[in-house]
Write a structure and sequence with these properties.
Helix content: 40-55%
Number of strands: 5
Largest sheet: 5 strands, parallel
Radius of gyration: 34 Å
CATH superfamily of the largest domain: Response regulator
Number of domains: 2
Shape: rod-shaped
Distance between the termini: 100 Å
Number of helices: 8
Mean pLDDT: 81
CATH class of the largest domain: Alpha Beta
Length: 217
């Protein structure tokens, strides 16, 4: 049989349980704190916005980056229409444009100068990547840089990385000049920030297409 002491303990426990239940129920009825109300407002606003306007409305609030994941600025390109054989005469439509050629090979320099001679395109030569960077520091008014990949002192990869790191050169397209067309090397060029690649020996039609794509805007 339960003693009076045991009954008293049981009664105390029952009272404590009742008090705890009452306390919990009371807390549920209390208004939200300021922090809780702020959180609820944000969540509710987000849900309402998605329900009313859909995902497109949310995406419109996100700023579109001006650079790609490879740290290359996004350049406007126009579609190259079908065309026949290209001659030096065709390059005259780009008269007034300026091109910086970073190339240490004298023969390749003469080929590019010869292709663009008397076309109205100004060609500035740099014997290596460092000279190209020095020229741009003094004068950055160029449409593009034709960048040899392998050069002494500062090679094309490093020169391109420095160009792409400088927002003052965001208007300049860097085009790789390389005879190496292996997929891994082309990927390395893109990672460095080169937007296009021209294969050596340079072909007149390929050069024309590159110039056409990045002009006329």
């Amino acid at each position: 049989m339960l003693t009076e002491y045991s009954l008293a303990i049981i009664a105390l426990i029952v009272v404590l349980v009742i008090l705890i239940i009452v306390f919990v129920l009371q807390k549920k009825k209390e208004p939200l704190s300021e922090d809780s109300e702020a959180i609820e407002e944000i969540v509710t606003h987000k849900l309402d916005e998605e329900d009313l306007f859909g995902e497109e409305a949310i995406e419109e609030q996100i700023e579109i980056p001006t650079r790609t994941k490879d740290n290359t600025p996004t350049f406007a390109k126009r579609e190259i229409p079908p065309h026949g054989e290209i001659s030096r005469e065709n390059f005259k439509e780009f008269a007034g444009e300026r091109v910086l050629v970073a190339e240490d090979n004298l023969i390749n320099q003469k080929i590019i100068k010869g292709l663009l001679a008397d076309t109205g395109i100004e060609v500035v030569l740099a014997d290596d990547g460092q000279i190209a960077l020095d020229i741009l520091e003094r004068d950055s008014n160029f449409l593009m840089v034709l960048m040899d990949v392998q050069m002494p002192r500062v090679d094309g990869f490093e020169a391109t990385r420095q160009i792409r790191a400088n927002p003052n050169y965001n208007h300049i397209v860097v085009v790789a000049l390389s005879g190496d067309t292996a997929a891994d090397n082309i990927e390395k060029m893109k990672v460095a920030g080169m937007s296009e690649q021209l294969e050596k020996p340079l072909k007149m039609t390929a050069l024309y297409d590159i110039l056409y794509a990045y002009t006329g805007h």
